[in-house]
Amino acid sequence: MIVEATVGYPAWLQSRLPHPVVWIGGLIAGLERRWNDPETPERRRRELGVATVAILIVTMVVAGVLIESLPLPEIVAFAVVILAGSLGLAQRSLYDHVAAVARPLTAGSLPGAQTAVGMIVGRDTETMDEAEVATAALESLAESFNDGVVAPVFWFVVGGLPGLFAYKAVNTADSMIGHMEPRWRAFGWAAAKADDLMNWIPARIAGGLIALAAGKGWRTMLRDARKHASPNAGWTEAAMAGGLGVQLGGPVRYDGVVSQRPVFGEGRRPEAGDLKRGLGVYIRACGLLWLLLLVGGLMWPR
């Protein structure tokens, strides 16, 4: 975690060696093109979606086992596992992306903030006001704290590199094909369900860490988390709303169509300063996770 938080995945390395998530995405896209034919009966497409998730999990588990089994000196093997594990985290990149929204928003450049937030959310950003930009960025920060930090760490602790790689494969599949639109509903069903299952425990841990880091938010989290359509995303979003004393959620616009979403929290609409406060909560929540891992490691029987 310290390695990834310090250097992330540098641009110079990305240009020479694509991030493993890019490889996973390529495999998913290839299987989707081959198997997700609209002319195929829905039941059969669902079965092929299950097969896709199974192939992804088996492939990534095997990759993790092979890396952990490399015949290397102990200290080198440890370094390889740590470096490979850091590729499954997104602490640094998540902070950088949200900070890129906070800077222009704080400086009063709404168009710059709209462009930056468009890099991390799929909703329409051109007509957003300050509160909508801040809301979108805070929601992304809260949800991605689980998807990009807590859940990968959880599965690394539970299953080593095989567990971490399997989680990243499922999470990437969910983001690519786990949608409710007609094209994806059947084929992406297994990816969405697997992602819900693998995030169930981590999401609740992540929500608790946010509430602890903020010093408040427990009541809002416990009251509002289940309002979300996702069984997991509401825990971190509600905790962030309660922790900052603001209101998240509400209507959003996708491709010109307004979608009504539940509201989390009871406070005012967020503004630029709340985004900077949210980043502070995020940093402290990551620190609490580091501390939790350190204490757990020291107490683990040897």
From TrEMBL:
Topology in the lipid bilayer: Multi-pass membrane protein
A Pfam entry, by short name: CobD_Cbib
BP term (GO), one: cobalamin biosynthetic process
Transmembrane segments: 48-67, 279-300
The keyword tRNA-binding is annotated on this UniProt entry: no
UniProt main location, coarse: membrane
Assigned protein family: Belongs to the CobD/CbiB family.
Location in the cell: Cell membrane
Protein's organism: Caulobacter mirabilis
GO molecular function: ABC-type vitamin B12 transporter activity; threonine-phosphate decarboxylase activity
Keywords: Cell membrane, Cobalamin biosynthesis, Membrane, Transmembrane, Transmembrane helix
Superkingdom per UniProt: Bacteria
Matches recorded under HAMAP family: CobD_CbiB
GO cellular component terms attached to this protein's record: plasma membrane
InterPro entries linked to this entry: Cobalamin_biosynth_CobD/CbiB
Entry function: Converts cobyric acid to cobinamide by the addition of aminopropanol on the F carboxylic group.
Annotated pathway: Cofactor biosynthesis; adenosylcobalamin biosynthesis
Protein name: Cobalamin biosynthesis protein CobD
